[in-house]
Amino acid sequence: MASTIISELAGHGVRFCSLLVVPDYHHQGLFTKQRQFVSWLRGLEADGHEIVVHGYFHERPRSTRETMRDRFLTRVYTKNEGEFYDLSYDEALRRIVAARDEFRAHGLKPRGFVAPAWLLGDEAERAARDAQMEYTTRLRSVCDLRSGDVFPARTLVYSVHNNWRRAVSRTWNAAMFRLLKSKPLLRISIHPPDYFHTPIWTQILAFIKATGSARTAPTYQDWITEQRLRRGI
Questions:
Q1: Are 50 and 221 in contact (CB under 8 A)?
Q2: Which has the closest alpha carbon to 144: 22, 53, 208, 231?
Q3: Reduced 3-state DSSP string for the chain
Q4: Regarding predicted confidence, which is higher, 66 or 27?
Q5: pTM to 2 decimal places
Q6: pLDDT tens digits for 15-62?
Q7: Percent of all residues in the chain with a pLDDT value above 90, rounded to a whole number
Q8: Dmax over Cα atoms in the chain, in whole Å?
Q9: CA distances (Å), 203 to each of 26, 157, 173, 187, in order?
Q10: Residue 173: what pLDDT?
Q11: In the chain, N or C: fewer CB atoms in 10 Å?
């Protein structure tokens, strides 16, 4: 499915993407054991796409010591997938370093780290920096972990779990697109299930078409590199 999405995006002028890869999704087994998949990722990277470390398990166990805000963010908003929301520094560092080293051992060169659901606690962000990750992203920003610069840039993202979420997502993103389309960085986050919902996929392609003549689509790493050059870092 991911290859189909990438191919269709390329047909609409998006030549390069940042692909978020979970090392061991929901403890189902390391992706590195799937040789064909790893080979495919290496090929994408060689073609100019970027492979990004996306959490480790993409899963967060529930805790009995949670505020109402914690419960909303980790259970309702993310369905128990906010893995790095409140991890300790030591555990966050252990997981990020393990993921980084596993990627590298299989010929991949990850530069960025993105927490599941963009829920990245302060201790986990410090761990990502100490693990020598170049950047991270949150829902509303992109952060250069080397310089500490934070660039406001909200992403468009969809929730497709049921009909009402899909309807709200389309309405919300249409409104957000009108506000964000002139910003320096326009982010669109795509999950594989988005492709199976025709109105959502059609809207994504419409956004790309509406801005294609005025924009290029770099990877996050390329964009961060460009910002550093502009700032003389």
A1: yes
A2: 231
A3: CHHHHHHHHHHCCCCCCEEEECCCHHHCCCHHHCHHHHHHHHHHHHCCCEEEECCCCCCCCCCCCCCHHHHHHHHHHCCCCCCCCCCCHHHHHHHHHHHHHHHHHCCCCCCEECCHHHCCCHHHHHHHHHCCCCEEEECCEEEECCCCCEEECCEECCCCCCHHHHHHHHHHHHHHHHHHCCCCCCEECCCHHHHHCHHHHHHHHHHHHHHCCCCCCCCHHHHHHHHHHHHCC
A4: 27
A5: 0.93
A6: 999 999 999 999 999 999 999 999 999 999 999 999 999 999 999 877
A7: 86
A8: 51
A9: 30, 11, 9, 14
A10: 98
A11: N
Q: Which residues pair with 36 in a beta bridge?
A: none
Say whether pLDDT at 153 is over 70: yes
User: What token pair was written down for 104?
Assistant: 């590298």
Q: What is the reported pLDDT for 79?
A: 76
What's the full length of the chain, in residues?
A: 233
Contacts by 177-180, CB closer than 8 A, 24 or more apart: 177/207, 177/210, 180/154, 180/156
- To the nearest whole percent, how much of the chain has pLDDT over 70? 97
Both tokens of residue 95? 């997981």
